[in-house]
Amino acid sequence: MLLWRTTFLASTHFNLLVSQTGPFSTISQRSYSMELNNSRDSVTQGDELVNFYGNGTASAYADMMDEEVKKTIPDLKLLLTSLPDEGLILDTCVGSGHMLRWIHENHGSQKTRQLQGIDISSEMLEQARTRLPGSMANLVLGNMLDVSSQVDESCAAVMNTFALHHATAKECKTAIQEWTRILKPGGCLYVGAWEGKGDIDYGDYSPGFKAVLHQQTDIIDWMTDSGLTIVQSRTHMEEEMGMNSFYVIGKKPTK
């Protein structure tokens, strides 16, 4: 999940306030022109993105998620009642592991179901392992945009929360197609993201770092274009940030 507190003003010029949580305390404010479209064709990825989530950021993120995970619990409850009997539950950007931990503790008779989490950051995976020790989940280093090693129709659920701002619109659409490919018939894709258009400014802490917001309607379109039926879509106003987060569950039709 994005660590920055972001406020957008609905105009062609945005006053963007970025303040850091966890160990970061610097507040910077910038006023600049931003076109009201989502046209960025590149974002920060690779080693630079990995490094961004190092140096204590993973620990601060994990502390924040102690509270943030509570916002996903209604969705996770619905998700668990909507899945086929068999199949992997895959978190494509597992982060600190809070969501898979909640699933492990609360999916009752399905506790034998295999859980897997992937993340691009080894420091994030270390945080996840503290919450998912031993055989609770298979935690592996990987990229949410590449699930080519996963067999077709092998997953009961695929999850991706607050990571799509690290991907372009084209990459998001392709990833959703791939996540749908690996879902079993009757399986569900769960996506959570920040709502909006345009770039995210990380301020002086990480100048030049590139990330982009996506609209809820676009995410839903990409999910339905991939063959999913939307079973739930909701928004949550983040009052501190002056923006919405949104959560969508899409179900793959049974054959």
TrEMBL record:
<feature type="domain" description="Methyltransferase">
    <location>
        <begin position="89"/>
        <end position="187"/>
    </location>
</feature>
<dbReference type="InterPro" id="IPR041698">
    <property type="entry name" value="Methyltransf_25"/>
</dbReference>
<feature type="signal peptide">
    <location>
        <begin position="1"/>
        <end position="19"/>
    </location>
</feature>
<dbReference type="Pfam" id="PF13649">
    <property type="entry name" value="Methyltransf_25"/>
</dbReference>
<dbReference type="InterPro" id="IPR029063">
    <property type="entry name" value="SAM-dependent_MTases_sf"/>
</dbReference>
<dbReference type="GO" id="GO:0008168">
    <property type="term" value="F:methyltransferase activity"/>
</dbReference>
<dbReference type="InterPro" id="IPR050508">
    <property type="entry name" value="Methyltransf_Superfamily"/>
</dbReference>
<protein>
    <recommendedName>
        <fullName>Methyltransferase domain-containing protein</fullName>
    </recommendedName>
</protein>
<keyword id="KW-0732">Signal</keyword>
